[in-house]
Amino acid sequence: MRFKRTGAIFTAFLLVIPTHFVSAATQEEKLQSEGSYSEKSEVVYATLEANGDQKEMYVVNNFSIDQPGKIIDYGPYTGVKNLTDLTEMKLNNHQVGFTATEDPFYYQGNLEGRSLPWDIDVSYQLNGETLPPEQLLGKDGKLEIHIDTKAKEKDNPFFKNYMLQISLPLSSEIYQNIQAPDGTIANAGKNKQVTFTVMPEKEESFVVKADVTDLEMESIEITGIPASMSIDTPNSDDMTDDMKSLSDATEAIDEGVDELNKGITELHQGAVSLHGGSQEYKKGINELDQGSAELIEGSKSIDESLEQLSQSIGSHSDQMNVSQLQELQKRLTDMANRLKETENHLADLRDRYTDAYDALDKSIAAIPAYDISDEEIQELKESDADPKIVDELVKTYTAARATKDTYSDVKKNLQAVDPALKDVTSSVHSMRIYIETIADQLDKSLDQTNWDESMKKLQQGLHALSSNYKSFHSGLVDYTDGVARLSKSYGELHGGITDLTNGTQELKTGAHELHDGTSQLAQSTNDLPDQMQTEIDQMIDEYDKSDFDPVSFVSSKNKKVESVQFVIKTESIKKEEDKQDDEQKEEEKKGFWDRFLDLFR
């Protein structure tokens, strides 16, 4: 019975053993053949000095096995470690050989003399003094940490397509009043974490400021990952509608400024016309004032001559002969001719004055009599209008109001000049006619025989003429005094008109420049919706790296690279015993699998 049972067991063993050996033999054959993988990833680990100088680097390679067997990888490694199993790996002339099963395969390759795609510089200032990291430990004061990132080579694919995330863990017991203008500050438990981001193809400089006590510092952690997120094009219809409204508004502003420019141009033309009329008036009133002395002198001479004639005729009428009367008649005729010239001069002056005054009055009337309050002016200054144009508008408005007010004050005096000139001219005309009449009567009297009667009438006429002329001469003196005062006061008014004209010229220039600006603005915003969409597309294209095909960091011969990442850390600034404690704590956190993998590292 026992023999039968033993035989049965032996028979079963014979049946199982061949099957086991066949399966093992098949697996061994597979491992000895050439294998393949579907994809590969690389994680580049780098350690930096506290100032950013590169220290150590290694790469953990991960393969998704498609076909078990022998696989070749490439990289200028100084040494490799199998992180998956106990099988031997071969390294020869930058070529790594290993045997993989169907499970994912990991190995570590150590690199020396290989640079990161970025230059990372970290510097420290304590209380305004730049210090090396080793001199910062335990110090107090105001700390600044400067981090600068630059490209090793601008055409490096990792610099062009990868973003860097820089993190600084800061203990709240050590760091207070933390400032990071270009970064974000987040709570990490009871501590703070400062984070900066460097976009692809960018070189950045960052600064962290804080008040520090008994300085210690954890490692700065830097992660480099591909900016391969796909960015969906946003729906910009609402924005383009707003941009269209803005474009229409700028066009309306341009049209309004164009009307303003035309109005200011017309105002300036009116001011120029006003200045021309004022200039003519000023010239005429000055000529009149300058001629007053000559007019008074001539009138005084006539007055003295008349008085002498009257006295001469009265005292020597019985002794006068024909020749003397003929001389008297000639002098009277000359006097009448001189009065005729004065009359013509006054008439011409009156015509010129009337034309100048009419031009001046129309120009002044053309200036708008707007009453703009100080509050309205202040609102205009606080608006979005060009401050230079606003100032010019206010100055022009002030000058225009001052001109109208001044003109209103002197208008009565200006209006009185024409009637006065008319009265003076009429008086001169009457006296000329009177003297001519006397001269004619005297000429006729020379042919008569009744000398006594003629002399008597002549004496009476000359006496009356002399008396009337004295009154006329006194009025003429008063008139010329008024002309002198008017000429002086009008000089001030003309100065204001000149300032007004200069102001409208500046305003015209400013309005023209403003119109040029609004025209350019309207032209540039005419296709603003299309420009905005183009800018959006360009920004999306700039940061959308979804079409980037990953490449190996260690060798261009490596294919099927799915991803490459960079994990970079600086050395901490701590006491040696604290560093050892941190390493021990890190060791305690590791699980069985981590400790098992460390056997192969």
Describe this structure in words.
Strand 1 and strand 2 form a beta hairpin. With 601 residues, the chain is of the alpha+beta class. The strands form 3 sheets. A 9-stranded mixed β-sheet has the order 4-7-2-1-17-16-11-14-13. The protein has 10 helices and 17 strands. The longest helix is centred in the middle third of the chain and has 80 residues, at 237-316. It has 3 domains: 34-114 and 554-570, no CATH class; 116-228, Mu homology domain, subdomain B (Immunoglobulin-like), CATH 2.60.40; 260-530, Up-down Bundle (Substrate Binding Domain Of Dnak, Chain:A, Domain 2). The two termini are 58 Å apart. Mean pLDDT is 75; it is low at 1-25, 316-320 and 595-601.
Shape: rod-shaped
What is the CATH topology classification name of the largest domain? Substrate Binding Domain Of Dnak, Chain:A, Domain 2
Query: Can you name the CATH architecture of the largest domain?
Result: Up-down Bundle
What is the β-strand count?
17
> Sheet bearing the most strands, described?
9 strands, mixed
The CATH top-level class label of the largest domain:
Mainly Alpha
What is the gyration radius calculated from CA atoms?
56 Å
- How much is the average pLDDT? 75
**Domains (count):** 3
Distance N terminus to C terminus? 58 Å
Class per helix and strand makeup: alpha+beta
Uncertain segments of ≥5 residues (pLDDT<50)? 1-25, 316-320, 595-601
**What helical percentage do the residues reach?**
55-70%
Classify the beta-strand content into a percent band: 15-25%
The neighbouring-strand order within the major sheet is 4-7-2-1-17-16-11-14-13
Count of separate DSSP helical elements = 10
What is the chain-wise order of helices and strands?
HEEEEEEEEEEHEEEEEEHHHHHHEHH
